[in-house]
Design brief:
This protein is mainly α. It has helices at 4-18, 32-50, and strands at 59-60, 66-68. It has a two-stranded antiparallel sheet with strand order 1-2.
């Protein structure tokens, strides 16, 4: 194990991170922790919006209500220009 000072510092640093919640102002922050939280938030948001890896388009009815998640597969071939 490390010495007590290093352990204490590690715990203090972990508590700083654990106590933080994302704020839009973090994108402009000069603080490394704030910038990291902003970047991580953006990556998670992008992945969430991208959807699942199965690449199926949900089927919806005429009122845009979800019918099923087992919709059409997304075409995986390239597009001709």
């Amino acid at each position: 194990m490390g010495n007590d000072q290093n352990d204490k510092e590690t715990i203090e640093n972990a508590n700083k991170v654990a106590g933080k919640m994302y704020d839009v102002s973090y994108y402009d922050s000069k603080n490394q922790l704030d910038k990291g939280i902003a970047i991580t938030h953006e990556q998670v948001s992008d992945d969430y919006m991208e959807g699942t890896i199965d690449g199926k388009i949900d089927e919806v009815d005429s009122n845009d209500e979800l019918k099923t998640h087992d919709g059409k597969n997304i075409r995986r071939k390239g597009f001709k220009e």
